[in-house]
Amino acid sequence: MNDVHPIEIESYRILAERVDLSAEQPLARAIIERMIHATADLSFADTARIGDRAGEALLAALNSDAPVIVDAAMVAAGITRYPTTCYLDRVPVAPAGNTRSAAAFRLAAEEHPTGAIFVCGNAPTALVELLDMHDAGLVEPAAVVGLPVGFVGAAESKAALWSSALAPISVTNEGERGGSPAAAGALNAIVRLVGEHDGNGT
User: Fold this and answer.
1) Separation between Cα atoms, residue 88 and residue 129, nearest integer Å
2) Which of 43, 112, 113, 118 is most buried, taking the most CB atoms under 10 A from its CB?
3) Residues of the chain with pLDDT under 70
């Protein structure tokens, strides 16, 4: 791209000196690089888990103008050059026994039962809700970016995603780290390629 800022170029140069991602497929490598670039967290080189079809699924969905559902305003703020929707404002009060984030993802899934990209960078409960709805046959995402952060539930929710039927079309990582910048970065890596590639990973 011709509009890459010199600081970003330098960031990627430093990244390439510190981690070797040459074994990764091109789209997976782009995702992991962007996660690291967005967070300065080199651990993603080891902990990132990219489904076999995740990059291609994201690219195909974005090229088809698929809706992107996010779990938090900070994730939306970090995603550039593509519209997103956050349903939190439509859930003013958490329902009994659940969280606003989970209820927001449920509402989003009800309105977009097929073909949406779900991006979770904050709330493990939202990711768990998505998995529960998928298990129940209520939603079929085009792709999932599951990178919630925290000491409570984050690692477990991501492990559940990686062991689920959605794993092949998912981007996630092992452990408690994650967050809005990583989640937004993962999607931005593919947004940058929209219209430039044909979805076959080349």
Assistant:
1) 14
2) 118
3) 1-2, 195-202
Whether 198 maps to a domain, the answer reads: no
Q: What integer pLDDT is reported at residue 4 of this predicted model?
A: 76
Distance CA 164, CA 34 (A): 25
Q: DSSP string covering 18-87, please?
A: H---TTS-HHHHHHHHHHHHHHT-TTHHHHEEE-TTHHHHHHHHHHTT--EEESSHHHHHH--SS--EE-
Is 37 marked active-site? Answer: yes
* Whole-number pLDDT of residue 5: 82
- 70 - beta bridge partners? 86, 119
Check residue 57 and give its pLDDT.
Answer: 98
Active-site hit among 37, 112, 134, 197: 37
Handedness of CA 30, 73, 122, 107 (dihedral sign): negative
User: Over the stretch 77-99, which tens digit does the pLDDT of each residue have?
Assistant: 999 999 999 999 999 898 888 99
Classify residue 16: in a domain, yes or no: yes
The reported pLDDT for the residue numbered 2 is 54
Q: What is the largest CA-CA distance in the chain?
A: 50
Q: Answer whether residue 196 is part of any domain.
A: no
